[in-house]
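Would you mind writing out a protein's amino acid sequence and the numbers that encode its backbone to help me picture the idea?
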Amino acid sequence: MQTPALVLSGPPGVGKTSVGWRVFDRCTDLGQHPAFADLDLLGAAWPAPDDDPHQSRLKAANLAAVWSNYRQAGSRRLIVAGVVENLDERRQLEEATGGSVVICRLDAPDTELAERIHGRARENGADLANLVARASELSALLVADDVSDYSVDTAGRTIDDVAADVLAHWPFA
């Protein structure tokens, strides 16, 4: 039986990628042969189709190809960072990974998300304002339309503490 992929979901600035790398490191230390994929990078193509503005289909298709290559290279556990907004997106990821997924929703207050986004210094001007607004919008949406299996609060915590919490709730770590 294949181990379900661990998907770290949450709004921008919550720490999905940073925590994903730390979980990857811990799984490596445990000899679990992990692989890591970031859905934002797998969907970084323009233009986005009108019927898929967040590129969820492209992300899932690319994840399927990447996971296949990772498995051929010897990986046995998949850790994914990316936003999962609804059941359709969850199903797309399950199809892409060839099995079930375990979704951990990472949470933080809007004020902390905004601080983290500003601190990254990747966006500026209108792009920065739009991303901060999107983070707040997504934070509320992901709680209201919860498709996660469990959640972990990242507010005021170190990446190590959050990763330990994530792994403590992932029954396959």
Summary: The two ends are 15 Å apart (CA to CA). DSSP finds seven helices and five strands in the chain. The chain has a mean pLDDT of 93.
